[in-house]
Amino acid sequence: MKLSDVQKRLQAPFPAHAVAWKPGVITKDRSRALMLAHIDARNVQDRLDAVCPDAWSFEVEVVPGTRLPTVKGRLTVLGVSREDIGEAPEGDLGTLKAAASDALKRCAVQFGIGRYLYDLPKQWVAWNDAKREPVSPPELPEWARPDHERSPGGAHLVQAMDQLRYEMPEDLELQREVYKHLKAALGSLHPISGGNQGRAA
Hints:
- The chain has helices spanning about 5-10, 40-50, 95-110, 155-165, 170-190; strands at about 20-25, 30-40, 55-60, 70-75, 80-85, 125-130, 135.
- Helix 4 packs antiparallel against helix 5.
- It folds into two domains: about 5-140, Enolase-like, domain 1 (2-Layer Sandwich), CATH 3.30.390.80; about 150-190.
- Helix content is about 30%, strand content about 20%.
- The N and C termini lie far apart (about 65 Å).
- A hairpin with a 5-residue loop joins strand 1 (about 20-25) and strand 2 (about 30-40).
- The chain is α+β, with helices and mostly antiparallel strands.
- It has a four-stranded antiparallel beta sheet, with no helix packed on it.
- The radius of gyration is 21 Å and the shape is flat.
- The truncated form (1-160) of DdrA forms heptameric rings that can assemble into a 3-ring structure.
- This is Single-stranded DNA-binding protein DdrA.
């Protein structure tokens, strides 16, 4: 088994309940916040265990002389290694363990795990500053959900977006394929009446 054989499974969206949200920016009046989606290091480990349980490893090396606990992580999946730096947050959570978790998530993104979260649209929501949480959590768009959580048209929309991710295909048949999926997605939202239904008698 090669990395290319499991790439799509590694890159697959996580269930909505596994995606957490944290404020990236809060307005001066503390009434609204720009929410950022993220996953836990355990989600990364679970994904790796599900896809290639005996073919991945993670190593960390402490980076000396930094203000916050910092490590260099190396994630190896099916013989391919990716490295990145992990840094612990400020405050009580600033531990080497937190830095290692950060490094694991950053390395995992290089394999496509959770990378789609960086493509989410900006989501500003009402912010409850007393509770330090959003009044209502943001909603994930259709394409950022696993198949079983999508609406009937969601799968078609994802197919079209996959083909348009980099550029509009020049091949006429591929253009027709994109159009077919977009039409099916829109049709699921606004079903087209069949036959003479809706016509004047």
